[in-house]
């Protein structure tokens, strides 16, 4: 059995084109973002917009890592078509590491805890003063990125080695790393979201917060994988690597994470709402009852009810064309969700989309997609020698 | 009512692949009243015997919907109509509080409908079934796979159908007495 070791020319051309376009969007977007911030002399708004856009695109890379490790642990043929799509996502982490640097320069404009006297009374205030010390914040960020870069590097290195040698031990090595890797991922990612986003309101806290972002990441990565499958659908042997039941599996995973998103988001709301404590309730009041209430209602309908009922239909989950439309929708609504979670911390007065918000999302997004496409074409679109997938393609390519 | 001396014909196979291939060929040959028996789930076998639609998902959806409405309605009735209590200054109709119960009863309604609906639609429990008259059929619970063409099938003809089944290379073809 021989499969093409490098990408066929037409695939490479399509990915090249996507990469060039995305990078053009990214560079122009970032230039406009910086120029606009210069022109308006509004660097506070610049960093607000930048953080929202950064977190939104980071969600993709982190979700790819989670779903990839999930598959290494559990197996299942649904992982065959999207394995390389996810791996390319994890290889964007170095680029996202570089893109995090501006956040460090914006710390004093982003985080109220950089100013003295914002951390509340003793005894909780004492812990916050120690934990939210700027150098410690940076050290933690370095640790998170070290973990993510290391996990991504190992998983990709072994996967490439598996392609070359077909050594059976590599499958076990990857699944042995995936279990502690998932624990590390969960801790570091939720910790990062607490550090980078939750501390925008330093006296507010919620223990579900990190899990909300874990679920957002997984849902975004699955939706993104479906979109990529659609984009690459015309190419062999990728097209033969899945059938309606496999798509149904991926659709069911999307359904699961949609439900989990609702569960986490609602549990957070319910606990704070019924507790009604004065240090917790403002967060909910602004987002769910104040001027942001229409966004919250829209999320409930468009992030839960609509996708939920659509994903109950087998006719959708088994057809790539339909499922990919929903997947695009999930990515759009995830952006709204991230915006709704973060922006009210700066803007209690209600949603007011700034030009910088738009250009930052396009700029960082363009760079991310460009980096993604550059990584995607470095490996064959399917893992060549994973023993778990042996025989799946044989009826098409047997010899 | 005409008594049918024969319920159908049954062929025995040793592997899931064999019974799956046989089911496909039987369906292609035009037989529609067919059934397959297997000790393990065989992917694609249900579709192969022409099973393409069931009302069960619709029933489960309605069961879930009914359970959810009942859960929400129960909480609402208890807290708003029957016994309103001021809890922490919250409105009587504190609907976010009802959601966990609504959710639980949705799951309960859907799960019970799924289990009992499945049993009812399958006609279970069935203490007697003509297939039990075939001695070999006991192996369907352990390591053998069976394909059955029922006498009700329009295309059924004892001699021809028997010849057809034998053409599928089974490990045996049995007549099922009704």
List keywords for this structure.
heterodimer, A: 399 residues, mainly alpha, 74% helix, globular, disordered C terminus, B: 178 residues, alpha+beta, 2 domains, 13% strand, rod-shaped
Give a nutshell description of this structure.
The complex is a heterodimer of chains A (399) and B (178). Chain A is an all-alpha fold. Chain A has helices at 9-40, 43-74, 79-90, 93-105, 107-110, 124-131, 134-165, 169-196, 209-231, 244-275, 281-289, 293-311, 314-317, 320-342, 355-376, 394-397.
Give your account of this protein's structure.
The complex is a heterodimer of chains A (399) and B (178). Chain A is an all-alpha fold and 399 residues long. Chain A is 74% helix and 0% strand. Chain A has one domain (9-388). Chain A is globular and about 65 Å long. Chain B has a four-stranded antiparallel sheet with strand order 2-3-1-4, covered by helices on one side. Chain B contains five helices and four strands. The longest helix of chain B is centred in the middle third of the chain and has 27 residues, at 56-82. Chain B folds into two domains: 6-53 and 126-177, no CATH class; 56-121, no CATH class. Helices cover 45% and strands 13% of the residues of chain B. Chain B has 178 residues and is an alpha+beta fold. Classes of the chains: A mainly alpha (399), B alpha+beta (178). Chains A and B meet through helix 10 of A and helix 4 of B.
Rg from Cα of chain B: 25 Å
Distance between the termini of chain A: 6 Å
Q: How many individual domains of chain A?
A: 1
**Mean of pLDDT of chain A:** 91
What is the H/E string of chain B?
A: EHEHHHEHE
| Number of domains as seen in the coordinates of chain B | 2
Q: Overall 3D geometry of chain B?
A: rod-shaped
Helix content estimate of chain B? 40-55%
- Sketch the major β-sheet of chain B: 4 strands, antiparallel
Tell the overall outline of chain A. globular
Kindly report the greatest chain-chain contact and the residue count on each side.
A-B, 8 and 8 residues
Radius of gyration of chain A: 22 Å
Structural class of chain A: mainly alpha
Percentage beta strand of chain A: under 5%
Strand order of the largest sheet of chain B: 2-3-1-4
């Amino acid at each position: 059995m021989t499969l093409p070791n490098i990408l066929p020319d037409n695939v490479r051309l399509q990915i090249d084109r996507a990469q060039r376009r995305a990078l053009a969007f990214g560079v122009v977007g970032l230039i406009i973002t910086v120029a606009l911030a210069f022109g308006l002399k509004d660097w506070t708004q610049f960093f607000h917009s930048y953080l929202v856009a950064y977190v939104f695109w980071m969600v993709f890379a982190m979700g790819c890592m989670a779903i990839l490790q999930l598959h290494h642990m559990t197996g299942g043929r649904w992982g065959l078509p999207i394995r390389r799509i996810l791996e390319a996502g994890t290889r964007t982490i170095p680029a996202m590491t570089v893109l995090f640097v501006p956040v460090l320069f914006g710390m004093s404009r982003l985080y109220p805890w950089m100013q003295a006297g914002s951390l509340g009374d003793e005894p909780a205030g004492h812990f916050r003063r120690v934990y939210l010390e700027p150098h410690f914040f940076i050290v933690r960020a370095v640790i998170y990125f070290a973990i993510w870069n290391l996990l991504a590097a190992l998983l990709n290195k072994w996967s490439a080695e598996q392609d070359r040698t077909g050594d059976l031990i590599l499958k076990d090595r990857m699944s042995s790393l995936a279990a502690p890797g998932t624990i590390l991922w969960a801790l570091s990612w939720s910790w990062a979201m607490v550090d980078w986003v939750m501390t925008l309101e330093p006296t507010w806290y919620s223990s579900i917060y990190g899990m909300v972002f874990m679920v957002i990441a997984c849902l975004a990565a699955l939706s993104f994988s479906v979109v990529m499958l659609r984009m690459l659908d015309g190419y062999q042997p990728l097209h033969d690597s899945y059938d309606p039941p496999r798509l149904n599996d991926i659709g069911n995973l999307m359904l699961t994470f949609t439900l989990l998103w609702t569960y986490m988001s609602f549990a957070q709301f319910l606990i704070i709402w019924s507790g009604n404590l004065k240090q917790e309730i403002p967060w909910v009041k602004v987002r769910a009852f104040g001027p942001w209430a229409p966004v919250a209602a829209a999320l409930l309908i468009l992030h839960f009810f609509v996708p939920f009922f659509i994903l109950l239909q087998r006719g959708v989950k088994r057809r790539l064309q339909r499922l990919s439309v929903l997947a695009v929708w999930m990515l759009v609504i995830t952006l709204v969700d991230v915006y709704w979670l973060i922006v009210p911390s700066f803007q209690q007065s209600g949603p007011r989309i700034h030009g910088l918000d738009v250009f930052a999302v396009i700029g960082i997004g363009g760079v991310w997609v460009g980096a993604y496409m550059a990584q995607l074409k470095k490996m064959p679109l399917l893992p060549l020698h994973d023993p778990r997938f042996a025989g799946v393609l044989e009826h098409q390519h047997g010899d | 009512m005409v008594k049918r001396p024969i319920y159908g014909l049954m062929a025995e196979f040793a592997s899931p692949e064999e019974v799956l291939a046989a089911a496909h060929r039987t369906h292609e040959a035009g037989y529609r009243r067919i059934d397959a028996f297997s000790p393990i789930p065989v992917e694609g076998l249900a579709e192969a015997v022409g099973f393409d639609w069931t009302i069960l998902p619709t029933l489960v959806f309605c069961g879930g919907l009914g359970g959810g409405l009942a859960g929400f309605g129960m909480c609402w009735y208890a807290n708003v109509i029957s016994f309103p209590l001021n809890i922490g200054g919250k409105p009587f109709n504190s609907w976010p509080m009802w959601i966990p119960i609504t959710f639980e009863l949705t799951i309960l309604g859907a799960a019970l409908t799924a289990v009992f609906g499945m049993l009812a639609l399958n006609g279970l429990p069935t203490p007697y079934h003509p297939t039990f008259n075939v001695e070999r059929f006991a192996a369907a619970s352990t390591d053998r796979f069976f394909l059955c063409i029922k006498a009700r099938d329009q295309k059924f003809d004892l001699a021809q159908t028997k010849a057809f089944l034998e053409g599928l290379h089974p490990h045996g073809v049995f007549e099922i007495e009704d």
